[in-house]
């Protein structure tokens, strides 16, 4: 079967274009394998963004206490 393929957030499975509405899935992806990896990629991106946000929140802390 040809793509596009999606990861359904409701059913936690790969589905073809004729699946659930787009607001309930990740994609489109060219292959079913790429769609199956979507949750892991999304998790990794979220973790990276959280680390970057934490670095920004901590940036400059201690400067107002004379810790230069």
Helix percent band = 25-40%
How many domains make up the coordinates? 1
Number of strands: 3
Rg is 19 Å
Helix-and-strand structural type: alpha+beta
Outline? rod-shaped
Q: How much β-strand is present in the residues?
A: 15-25%
Strand order of the largest sheet: 2-1-3
Stretches where pLDDT falls below 50 for ≥5 residues? none
The run of helices and strands is EEEHH
Organism: Phytoactinopolyspora alkaliphila
Protein name: SPOR domain-containing protein
Region (Disordered): 17-68
Biased composition (Basic and acidic residues): 44-68
Chain-wise SSE layout:
Layout: E1 5-8, E2 13-16, E3 25-29, H1 32-36, H2 38-58
Antiparallel strand pairs: 1-2, 1-3
Structure, briefly:
The chain is of the alpha+beta class and about 70 residues long. It is built from two helices and three strands; from the N terminus they run βββαα.
Protein described:
The chain is built from two helices and three strands. With 68 residues, the protein is an alpha+beta fold. It has one domain. The protein has a three-stranded antiparallel β-sheet. The longest helix is centred in the C-terminal third of the chain and has 21 residues. 9% of the residues are buried. The model has no long low-confidence stretch (mean pLDDT 92).
Note the main attributes of this structure.
three-stranded antiparallel sheet, 68 residues, 2 helices, rod-shaped, single chain, alpha+beta
């Amino acid at each position: 079967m040809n793509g596009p393929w999606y990861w359904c957030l409701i059913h936690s499975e790969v589905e073809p274009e004729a699946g659930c509405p787009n607001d309930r899935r990740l994609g489109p992806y060219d292959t079913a394998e790429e769609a199956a990896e979507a949750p892991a990629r999304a998790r990794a991106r979220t973790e990276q963004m959280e680390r970057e946000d934490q670095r920004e929140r901590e940036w400059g802390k201690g400067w107002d206490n004379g810790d230069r």
